[in-house]
């Protein structure tokens, strides 16, 4: 058996690769069902999976990367991580500015970030940062929607 594993490394690598692909597909399918159940697929204007959320300026901890999905709905921007049950719900009428940056909470993350400044429930300015695929398109979509 050990001899087989040594000689057939390509088989093992391929098998592990397939397991990873199936796991990612399973997670995306689960997320899409959750979205459809909560919002209905017709309400979602833009959707991205594998989005990194780096926290809000209201919590003064260093940026921590949390992966989930980001939705642009007719009335809000919504981020959710199913594993940790983290929700970020930003009402469109409270958005002040959407822009591109590489820093968040004073830390240079060396990544292209979409940042959203908005007024929170206490009417104070707050900022969140996301790493999304195609940041310019996200910025344009949010500006156009609100």
What secondary-structure arrangement, pairings included, does this model have?
Blueprint: H1 2-7, H2 9-39, E1 46-56, E2 66-72, E3 76-81, E4 86-91, E5 95-104, E6 107-119, E7 125-131, H3 135-145
Antiparallel strand pairs: 1-2, 1-7, 2-3, 3-4, 5-6, 6-7
Description:
With 146 residues, the chain is of the alpha+beta class. It folds into 2 domains: 1-40; 43-145, Pleckstrin-homology domain (PH domain)/Phosphotyrosine-binding domain (PTB) (PH-domain like). It has 3 helices and 7 strands; from the N terminus they run ααβββββββα. It has a 7-stranded antiparallel sheet, covered by helices on one side.
In short:
Helices cover 33% and strands 41% of the residues.
Give the tags.
2 domains; alpha+beta; 146 residues; 3 helices; PH-domain like; elongated
Oligomerization state of this entry? single chain
Helix content: 25-40%
Q: Which stretches of 5+ consecutive residues score pLDDT under 50?
A: none
In the CATH hierarchy, what is the superfamily of the largest domain? Pleckstrin-homology domain (PH domain)/Phosphotyrosine-binding domain (PTB)
Task: Report the principal-axis shape.
Answer: elongated
Largest sheet: 7 strands, antiparallel
What's the CATH architecture of the largest domain?
A: Roll
**Averaged pLDDT:** 90
For the record, what CATH class of the largest domain applies?
Mainly Beta
Spatial extent as radius of gyration: 19 Å
Secondary-structure element series: HHEEEEEEEH
Structural class label:
alpha+beta
**What is the number of strand segments?**
7
What is the CATH topology assignment of the largest domain? PH-domain like
Strand order of the largest sheet: 4-3-2-1-7-6-5
């Amino acid at each position: 058996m050990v001899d087989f594993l040594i000689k057939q490394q390509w088989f093992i690598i391929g098998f592990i690769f397939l397991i990873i692909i199936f796991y990612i597909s399973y997670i995306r399918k689960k997320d899409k069902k959750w979205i459809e159940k909560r919002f209905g697929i017709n309400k979602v204007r833009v959707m991205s999976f594998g989005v990194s959320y780096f926290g809000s300026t209201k919590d003064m901890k260093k940026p921590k990367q949390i992966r989930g999905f980001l939705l642009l709905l007719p009335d809000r921007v919504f981020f959710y991580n199913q594993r940790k049950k983290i929700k970020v719900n930003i009402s469109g009428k409270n958005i002040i500015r959407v822009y591109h940056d590489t820093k968040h909470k004073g830390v240079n993350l060396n990544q292209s970030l979409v940042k959203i400044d908005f007024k929170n429930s206490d009417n104070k300015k707050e900022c969140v940062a996301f790493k999304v695929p195609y940041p310019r398109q996200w910025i344009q979509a949010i500006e156009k929607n609100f």
